[in-house]
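idk why but the lab printer keeps eating my pages so im just putting this in chat instead. protein + adenosine monophosphate:
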Amino acid sequence: MSEIIVGIDLGTTNSAVAIVQDGEPRLLGRGDEKIVPSVVAYSEQAGWLVGRPALNQYTLDPDNTVRSIKRDMGSDKRVTLGGRELRPQEISAFILRELKSIAEEALGESIEKAVLTVPAYFTNAQRQATKEAGAIAGLEVVRIINEPTAAALAYGLGDEEDQMALVYDLGGGTFDVSLVEMTGGVVEVRASHGDTRLGGDDFDMLLAEHAGKLFYKRHQFPLKENRVALARLRHAAEMAKIHMSDYPEADLREEYLAERDGTPLHLDAKVLRSEFEEMSDELLKRTVESMNKVLEDAELEVDDLSQVLLVGGSSRMPAVWQLVENFAQIEPAAEINPDEVVALGAAVQGAIIAGQPVDSILVDVTPYSLGIETATFMAGQIIPDIYSVLIHRNTTIPVTKEEIFYALHEKQDMVEIKVYQGEAAMASANTLLDDFFIKNLKPFKPGEAPSVNVRFDFDVNGMLNVTATDRLTGNTEAISVEATQSTLSLSEISEMRQQFSDADYFEDDEDAVIEGAIAPEIDDETQALLTRGKALLDEGKLADKQATSLKVLMEKVIAAATQDDLDELSEELLDVLFDLE
Ligand code: AMP
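predcted complex ->
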């Protein structure tokens, strides 16, 4: 048996250890815990703490807890902890020792060698310090590789064709974007750019500030001086942020955050994903600047990119997916968990050095996008037949996604949920899986159209459960349908992605989708009338007045609030068309 070389991602926020076993890279952990927070702490009662227990103590005792030590690697900084002065290498060594023992427990044998990853921009001094951290932890660091290179290795890029991949890595505390070129089996970072002060933490801070304001508004109590309360607020904000990656809203809740005259004060508020995205727009724009810069440095254009890989836990935010897709005009790859991909790639490198065979990673994915039909207002007109995707194709399953959709009218008291699979921008051009109605809807807020939460749960057996819930009354309708599911290797997915790369998929107007409203059912006959009306308008032979009234009537038909209205208006349209034609 060849020797084991583990791969280690020593991250700013989180770390992980992986190996290749029977040809397949996989993460090692204790039970389900595979990600180790890069946190070291000292507690009078428990002594030295590493990982999750250290992170847990952060909210109680932030002063005796060290986070983000990676930022100080290669510097002369000293950290006082547990009555000792420690260098950044020594703090990092605590984390590496923890990962080493996780691997040893999982494999039942001693681990001596590792491949470690570092950001592409790390200087020699920083790389050297990382190597020393390994040595202090009792590991021989057989190679240091760049994180974007590791991501490309995990995706098996370069196995077949030459590739130019943009690796967008948004972690907890840092943002890096790199161009990785693969030619003739050689993987090389062509250019790299980043922002060492931009990451998930900044998104948490924004949300925590927002929560602090809400708390102040409610209780007239400032939290600014209270470090423990602020740490708890940040934690609540991070939980809400993570929730909103899959759901359209989240609770900001923290009991007993402060006390006034013996009365406990709680935080209990709600935040919408759309509000959060508005708050964080500036942060995301900074990542676009870096993407432009990296292309400029490499003297390349967006068109030269053949792949885009999403790395780092924060890349799970839907706004990131959208931003990167819009920028690169390529569907980003995120099949491998973005917080695991670097460690898996390091393990692949380890296996290559150890002479072990490595197979392409297999993942269970949704081979088609899944969504519902909606309509939207654009320039004062209603555009029907829009496909609003809830689960993008090639998403690893199981997966749950939820979105809020609005009826078109305040008076509209029911909507039809038509569930499609496919990639076309027009809903009706996709495959209809099933449809159902949710009735007796009531507006969530006065003056607003009723709204429903639509939830898609796709399980490992290929069953898609669709649930629609009236946001006011909580009334629910649900269906279960069998959707196509498959197990594909990452290289197969990459091939499929390239075939689709110039498909009409990208013409989908996401703004429209976000503002999407559920259209009332328009049957084939009415649709035919609308088509006839449009043909007449396009011909341009009608008098202005006739054209305007036809257009208004067609809009009314599309926007009909109830089935009765729709029937009546269709009749009227039929008559008008008869006259005009
Ligand atoms: P990493 O350093 O790559 O492990 O990334 C850690 C960061 O990812 C932290 O800021 C987390 O809050 C963030 N994160 C993890 N999961 C999610 C998620 N589902 N949505 C948004 N952010 C996430």
